[in-house]
Amino acid sequence: MEEVSTVGIDLAKSVFQVHGADASGAVVFRKKLRRDQVLAFFSTLPRCVVAMEACASAHHWAREIAAFGHDTKLIPPAYVKPFVKRQKNDMADAEAICEAAQRPTMRFVQGKSAEAQASAVVFRTRDLLVRQRTQLINALRGHLTEFGYTVRQGVGHVGKLIEMVSDPTSDIPAQARPVLVVIAQGLEALQAQIALLDREIARRAKADPVAKRLMTIPGVGPVIATALVALAPAASTFRRGRDFAAWLGLVPRQHSSGG
Fold this sequence. Notes:
Blueprint: E1 6-10, E2 15-21, E3 27-34, H1 38-44, E4 49-53, H2 58-66, E5 71-75, H3 77-80, H4 90-101, H5 114-145, H6 158-166, H7 177-207, H8 209-214, H9 222-231, H10 241-248
Parallel strand pairs: 1-4, 4-5
Antiparallel strand pairs: 1-2, 2-3
Helix pairs in contact: 5-7, 5-9, 6-7, 7-9
């Protein structure tokens, strides 16, 4: 255990695989740990680099393991994949993570605090509700089209769909009307919940000085401003504005091998 310098851990729900290596990359240990054994194991391990893929729960485990004095690093999964030498399994993944962490040119993901992750929940929830709303709109539009009722596309015309379902004088078949009412009521409930989240985002934008500065940029409103504050890495992570644009996906990817 005294020789270990880098540990790769393959995160899971119940059984975790860890792979320890010394400074030269030689294997020191391979272990399987149950979820309740992970922190106890790292509490007795000498200070070293502990690497894991940047996936669900990775930031939580990075914070917990760093509390024991270890240097925790998060690696994008796409950067780990080339180091998998054989058939993909937990043991091979842990070894690949360990090897990737030892590369001098490896790029790592900045760890997030619990507060930063909590700030992002509202955007993920809003995104989920918007997708559900789109599904209900498409379903209601499709069903009504079968009976000859159509409206223009867009969220702004959803009210007309609901009015058609609620109108007792319409010739919508009696067997279909109760079912369509269920969809319409679900759609109205989602609209109210999304509006509630929008108000919460607007409140946060007014209270955050960084978000206020971002909203002075033309085209940037409360949602974009607070999302950048909550989700984007620190500005010091990027060397120039082009790097930040690439992180956002606003520049084309390079698919060439030449200069």
